[in-house]
Specification:
Blueprint: E1 2-5, E2 8-11, H1 20-27, E3 46-49, E4 52-55, E5 68-70, H2 78-90, H3 99-112, H4 118-125, H5 135-152
Parallel strand pairs: 1-5
Antiparallel strand pairs: 1-2, 3-4, 3-5
The structure holds FE2/S2 (inorganic) cluster (2 copies).
One FE2/S2 (inorganic) cluster binds at residues 35-38, 40-45, 55, 57.
């Protein structure tokens, strides 16, 4: 099966129903994407599939054949830069475990909605849990990233 991840084509011999998360972590060694719950409840495994946030733990790899899969290692562009800068400026992470999923959800939101409302931010980030309870800083960083993008575009 052919899989395109972060702009690179991979030829993989894997079962069609293997979760994308296992392929990314175990076959491609892209370990920035985390395993949390395995049942689409925590958001730790969030990646982009054709630019949209998707839970890799419940995504059969065959369903993304031919798609553009992006992980935290390969996310790029103005929204990704704004999110990363805001994350650093606000010193968002504590343990860091949930953070790649949080960043991927935030970037997908800003790609789709450059100036989201507080409610849209809340909805977009609601599926990403944080055991360290960094929610206030995460929401603020998404707002700051949206503002800084607005200022530069
Ligand atoms: S590991 Fe995929 S949503 Fe929790
Ligand atoms: S920073 Fe620790 S789980 Fe979110």
């Amino acid at each position: 099966m052919k899989l395109r991840v972060n702009g690179r084509e991979h030829e993989l011999d894997v079962p069609a129903d293997m979760p994308l998360l296992w392929v990314l972590r175990d076959r491609l060694r892209l370990t920035g994407t985390k395993f949390g719950c395995g049942i689409a409840q925590c958001g730790a495994c969030t990646v982009h599939v054709n630019g949209r946030a998707q839970r890799a733990c419940v995504t059969p790899v065959a369903s993304v054949e031919g798609a553009d899969v992006r992980t935290i290692e390969g996310v790029e562009g103005a929204s990704a830069k704004a999110v990363q800068d805001a994350w650093v400026a606000l010193d968002v992470p504590q343990c860091g475990y949930c953070q790649s999923g949080q960043v991927m959800s935030a970037v997908a939101l800003l790609e789709a909605k450059p100036a989201p409302s507080d409610e849209e931010i809340e909805n977009a980030m609601a599926g990403n849990l944080c055991r360290c309870n960094c929610y206030a800083r995460i929401r603020q960083a998404v707002r700051d990233a949206a503002d800084s993008k607005g200022a530069t575009s």
